[in-house]
Write a structure and sequence with these properties.
Layout lengths: L2 H5 L3 H24 L5 H32 L1
Helix pairs in contact: 2-3
Amino acid sequence: MRVSEIREIASEELRTRLQETRRELFNLRQQWYTGSFQDHNRLRAVRKDIARILTILGERERAAETSEGVAA
């Protein structure tokens, strides 16, 4: 996923995708340990997707906190 695509998604949907992506990472790691792993690049891509989603969610939370602080 690209950052521009992630920014267009609502926060609740991002949280759902984060759970799905973490589940996928877990499954890929299981495949790695059992030796049935095929696509080594996918593991790296999934980790980067998780980092991107967490970054966007963190930015949104900080923006909400600062807007609440300014409004108060």
